[in-house]
Amino acid sequence: MRLLITGGCGFIGTNFVRLMRQRHPDWTLVNLDKLTYAGNRNNLARLEQEDDKYHFVEGDICDRQLVQSVLEEHDIKAVVNFAAESHVDRSINDPSPFVTTNVQGAQNLMECARIHGIERFVHVSTDEVYGSLGSEGKFSETTPLAPNSPYSASKAGADLMARAYFETYGLPILITRCSNNYGPYQFPEKLIPLIFLNAKADKPLPVYGDGLNVRDWIYVDDHCTGVELTLLKGREGQAYNFGGNAEETNINVVKTILQILNKPESLISYVTDRPGHDRRYAMDYSLAQRELGFTPSVSFADGMAKTIEWYENNGPWLQAVQNGSYRTFMNDWYKER
Ligand code: NAD
After folding, report:
1. NAD(P)-binding domain location, by residue (predicted)?
2. Sheet strands (E) in 153-308
């Protein structure tokens, strides 16, 4: 396998690269990442130093010439597209970069892959494209797309483009739609690392609205396994849902972290709700179970314990992300490991 991974310096991409390296030592992995604020090259610095089958390329998925030359130079056979602007709150402040990267960038990758004659293309999407659920039911792959935020609308745009590239050009594309991920290397603008940091510092813990919005939480390695299974076994043109079988309210997630850290609930501070905040997501992943043999392997309790332990043991990683030194390649965090 000669695989191009885009966005490999982000949260899920980093975990995916590390897992694929462990499971498939013979694969060539090329990581194309623009290194936006969310990309941290130090996450994979050791691989970059020591592994001649891992290659890092700094660049933009919107850049036609660059993507074409990476595909040719490395004789790429398959693509997994993680690259995206991924934070809903940022998309509310300014949707433009979300359209540029998540729609135009994804389309550019598909076009380059088509011209190159790629054998497999996995486009990584999200449960948020389906919109919001009431208290009952789950999203299946046939649930109509009804995105509510600029982020989810941009992801849905790329999903539709992926469908069109399959139907029109026969591009061997597959889509994964996964629920909320958590685990090591998540940027601390997202709920779990943010709450961890604030709780450790005895600062208020911001919780949107009444805290009763429900997400289906999945440990990041389980999502990465879903992407791997899709790459290896999925039916071309098909979308697959992935979830962690762990529906939790935001407030329960926050209370779980407080319990693990032995901190008081008085730190919780309810703040004005996010506009267009989806109430509930839940995933029916039975198709992935039947066709790919997927099943989430990490329970919410175990996954949270592992995640908090990782943040406890990697304080310098969090500090580097907070003070901006993560932007320097081979920073102190990396050297200390
Ligand atoms: P992230 O924000 O942590 O990482 C995104 C990565 O993409 C960064 O390394 C960034 O530098 C890179 N990137 C951004 N724009 C780029 C561009 N134009 N060209 C090249 N690289 C670029 O995101 P994440 O949480 O790891 O999510 C990865 C993917 O998974 C996204 O497509 C996201 O929509 C999807 N997803 C995320 C979740 C979740 O819970 N985090 C759930 C389902 C799906």
Report:
1. 4-306
2. 173-178, 180-182, 205-208, 214-219, 239-242, 247-249, 268-271
User: How many CB atoms within 10 Å of residue 288?
Assistant: 27
Mean pLDDT within 226-245: 98
Question: Is 189 part of the annotated catalytic residue set?
Answer: no
Rounded to 5 degrees, φ, ψ at 230 are: -65, -45
Residue closest via CA to ligand 1's atom 37 equals 126
pLDDT tier for residue 160 given thresholds of 50, 70 and 90: very high
- Which structural domain range is residue 239 located in? 2-336
CB-ligand 1 contact for 19 (6 Å cutoff) = no
| Cα 35 to middle of ligand 1, angstroms | 11
The three-class DSSP label of residue 256 is helix
**Cα distance between residue 153 and residue 99, in whole Å:** 9
CATH code for position 98: 3.40.50.720
Cβ atoms of 159 and 143 within 8 Å: the answer is no
Q: How many domains does the chain have?
A: 1
Closest residue by CA, ligand 1 atom 42: 180
| Its pTM surpasses 0.90 | yes
Q: How far is the CA of 219 from the centre of ligand 1 (A)?
A: 16
